[in-house]
Amino acid sequence: MSVTASDLPVVVIGAGPIGLAAAAHLAERGLDFVILESGPGVAAAIDEWRHVKLFSPWRYDIDSASRRLLQQAGGWTEPNPDILPTGGDLIDSYLAPLAKTPQLGDKIRYNAAVEAVTRVGFDRIRTAGREDAPFLIRMADGSELLAAAVIDAAGTWRRPNVLGGSGIPARGEAAAAAHISRALPDVLGRDRDRFAGRRTAVVGAGHSAATTLLDLGELAEQVPGTEVVWVVRGADQARTYGGSDADELPARGVLGSRLKNLVQTGRVELVSSFRIEALDQISDGRVELVAGERRVLADTVVNSTGFRPDHAIVGELRLDLDPILGSTRALAPLIDPNQHSCGTVPPHGVDELAHPEPGYYAVGAKSYGRAPTFLLATGFEQARSVVAGLAGDWHAARDVQLDLPETGVCSTNLTDPTSSSDAATSCCGPAPQSVEISAPAGRGLATGISGGLLTVIDDKPASAQTQSGCCN
After folding, report:
1. What would you measure as the largest C-alpha separation in the chain, in angstroms?
2. How far is 239 from 234, CA to CA, in rounded Å?
3. What is the dihedral of CA 248, 215, 308, 235, to 10 degrees?
């Protein structure tokens, strides 16, 4: 084939916030690109949880290059930086207008699912001449295109973790699929009929689980007969309850406090130290979660156990993946949830995201593998750094900086116990509409050496960092 990689565009997989941020930086640097989005519109995964509010106010949710493109296009009003957007707000007030800017508008292909990424004429074994070969992207419809580089921002939403406590599906999990809801259902809206007056078990100890539990708690106040069970593997829920008033993101602190109150008052039944071995469907149409001799009965089970990356589409590329998290090996110690919460993950960029396959980078949630500590602001900096590297501007690529509240930025439906509105009289009131962030920000520094960042963060070894697990 006579086509050389230098004649080809960069392919961005995914038109979510990080994929579009990468595209905005590519546009600013004058690099040709194509965006492949598997859904019918931008941020199709986020659209499934558009009812959920983020912990992070708008100031953390807009990429710098994307902001500049929107300002140049005109007609866009930037949201109040202190307001907490919902997933729907993120799409409607930011990502959808961004996708319509002149620089991005004709570069996005919707309903374009990627089936495989490889090198033209090269499987994973062959080495000689590999770096000069273009990337070959095969689509689900059988069509193909070539690329100079690939930025994989596909995310992890389509691949949730299993309910089984041993990392594989529990016995009977596949057969009980009709009883299982994915994370973040719209309990008070679209999915209300599935949960009202019924018994729901929420499995997981992260903030998506807490969000769903709060919504179910409110539904139980509204509809008699609605029962809520919270099933967790661990014995101590301190991480989920969080830091309350000490949390530097007040919205997240409110979340943990309200959930703790629901458990203490008995409106949510907590079942701890429960590692699911099987799901048994019983004759009355319900399902039982089984752990040894213990059983939990439910009409619906909400799987809030997190997500994992799908590396199958890049199986013929040479990846250096951490055997535990599934991130790059260099990134893994920086995002290990046993050592880091969202805000203590240090900034990182092109060096920490590089694989032995030159020109392929996973960014965004997919770059974190199974680690639950990813944040939008971190993903924006990843995209900026990777694009700078692809442009040959290695000084900018390695000048990785990020300002965040010490305890991190995540997402949830928020409640305000001080609100005087009618909604606040139930167990889950409306989200507070502004959050003042005044705490000092943490900052890390990329070294650019093999292995990524040094294991020293804010002059303390990683092992000495507080294990707050804000997103775990």
Report:
1. 71
2. 10
3. 70
